[in-house]
Amino acid sequence: MHAVRYHETGGPDVLQVDDVDPPDPGQGEVLVDVHAAGVNPVDTYFRTGAYPVPELPWTPGSDLAGVVGAVGPGVEAFTVGDRVFGTGLGRTVQGSHAEQVVAPVDHVAVLPDDVSFNEGAAVALVGVTAWRALVGYADLEPAETCLVHGASGGVGHVAVQLAEATGARVVATASEQYHDHLRDLGADVVLDYHREDLESAIAEAGAPDVILDTFMDEYFPLDARVAAHGARIVGIGNTSDEARIPLGPAKSKDLDFQVMSMFNVEAYGPILDRLGHLVVAGEVVPEVAETFPLAETADAHRTVMEESFLGKLVVEP
Fold first, then answer.
1. Do 256 and 300 lie in a common domain?
2. Residue 72 sits in a domain of what CATH number?
3. Which residues, 6 or more positions from 7, have their beta carbon under 8 angstroms from its beta carbon?
4. 249 and 301 fall within a common domain
């Protein structure tokens, strides 16, 4: 079978398509014939060596959707032929950018018949991240105001829809070219994050009770100033190793700052199950901006880091 692998860390050019033996599922694992695999910025962090992997060569890719081709010993929840989607790969186990992938059973869930493989692969990592942030940590409630930074991104565009589905009022920041689309996805107010008066514009829109921050090293100070008393602020992304929290407003407002990684979720399956139901119901629509054949995975890695788009990129083996 064919798998994208890197034999050394570096830029996208280190990715190559290798002909390798199909993997065998072990205890508590399933073999998935991959029909679609998501591409996320975190995949590039492993490839560059910023995040370590257990060994080289290594296959990148966190998300997948496909059909179970074989089951390992002890697997009872899935059978051959089941449609599944999953995430959490590419970190401690080989990733999803391959024609066949072995995945632990707690990393996958049944993909509903009404959800396409591309949609399943697109929603997995970003959906689990948004769910963990807004539902798990922030405990977002109906009628609260939720601010989503970077709302056109993979996590951001799902977070907007998830917040709207809970009955929250959604304020989003994004480039102006995506404002209409984000309103269609459920945002009540969309602000250009380039504007010089962003802080006052957020305040005018209403002090947020929950903030999802995809650039915490840049926006944590602003978040503290605009947040409502007792707000929950969840940081999921950063471009530097440190983020500053202004203690004055943080203390005076009793703010709760939480940083998280999707990879720390103990079991992905239960969240994926719920996301699948939301996609079927039309409450969450994973947007696929562009697809790539397996041989062009390097181009997908370049695009996810260098180009502007709304939603997700998907590789189709």
1. no
2. 3.90.180.10
3. 14, 16, 56, 57
4. no
Taking the whole predicted model, whether its pTM rises above 0.90 is answered as yes
Containing structural domain, residue 86: 2-111+287-316
Query: Per residue in 259-292, pLDDT tens?
Result: 999 999 989 999 999 999 999 999 999 999 999 9
Contact 100, 89 (CB under 8 A): no
Q: How far is CA 303 from the centre of its chain?
A: 16
Alpha carbon distances (Å) from 142 to 134, 146, 190, 209, 217: 12, 10, 19, 11, 28
Closest to 129 measured CA to CA, from 298, 290, 286: 286
Phi, psi of 73, deg, nearest 5: -60, 140
Residue 267, domain member (yes or no)? no
225 falls within a domain: yes
Do the strands 29-39 and 64-71 form a parallel or antiparallel pair, or are they unpaired? antiparallel
